[in-house]
Amino acid sequence: MDKTFFKTQKDISEKLISTIDSYWNGEINENEFLTCTNTLVENNQDIIFKKNTYGAVIKQRLGKKRICLLDKVLNIGNEAR
Question: In this structure, what is the dihedral angle of CA atoms 62, 67, 72, 73, given to the nearest 10 degrees?
Answer without folding.
Answer: 30
